[in-house]
Amino acid sequence: MTHTQGPFVINHSTVISTPTQPLASLARKLDAYLLALLLVVYALAAFLPGPGMVIRTQEVFHCPVTVLMLSVMLFLAGLGIEAREVRQAMRSWWHVLIGCVLLVAAPWGIVAALGALPLLLPVGLLAGLGLVALMPSAASSVAWTQLSRGNVAINVALILLSTILTPVLLGVITQQTHASFGEAGTSILEIGMWIVPSVLLGALVRHLVGEARVHAAKPMLKVGSASILLLLNYANASAALPKIVGDFQPMVLLVLVLTVWGMCGGIFVLSWFLTRWLNVGDSEARSLVFGIGMKNTGMALVLAGLWLEQFPLALVAIIIYTFSQHLFAAGFHQWNLRTGAVSAD
Known about the structure:
This protein is mainly alpha-helical. It has 17 helices and 4 strands.
């Protein structure tokens, strides 16, 4: 809308949008360089861990600051869930159900197979990968699904449902396997009390304030979420990386990388073949492969920092997994392009 006052022409849309332009530009840059920024953060954690360790020791209302930061991230994720996408996913409830089952079954099966060779693997590696296996689908899977022309609604529903079910799943696995999760001061119940309400509250706030206002604030939300993610990774990596750098063992690191790649790549391959076997449509299959193959490693790193601090390699395995899943996602996308399943334009 444009009004003329004397010699001046006022364009209201320009005036309103101008303050958001720097944030929008920053949000795009954070999206483009997030993996590179994570590398910088990990380098800082390895050689300048002091501030990160201070962050890890802080508590608010008897809850670790890292858990509160995780809950804010999940609140922002809930704020980004569109009701339209959830309604679309309800029409594909069968695919979402398949995704939820495979999201846990595929990685947990691989971890169980690796568990048959405990003496060949570094101490803490299986604990880290086991925690990753129980994590919900990653929000980054949506971006890869969009790029590969998949069904985004399935990914959104998978992220929401798997995040809500994660505390329940952690509790069940702990009881069945007598795992040590939750014995380091913060229980699974306490974690669940922060995780589940955060996501649901975000979705509720979006409904109350309206789609338009949330969309207008999207750049600010992206910047906030990315900033918290980087700070969380720095704080949690500060507990593990200095020990690894101080006692660097190339062969251990090689075994670590190869094992993580084997698990991550195995999940992508296994989920693809299972979707083919179940006769899932091409678009839905791509969505499920990304949704199943990509885990919320940010959450895993927070929980590992609370529960597995005595196993530095567990945290390092999660860090390696963070980068590996993006490499395999890129490889799967390129494979779809070459086979003609997805057009390049």
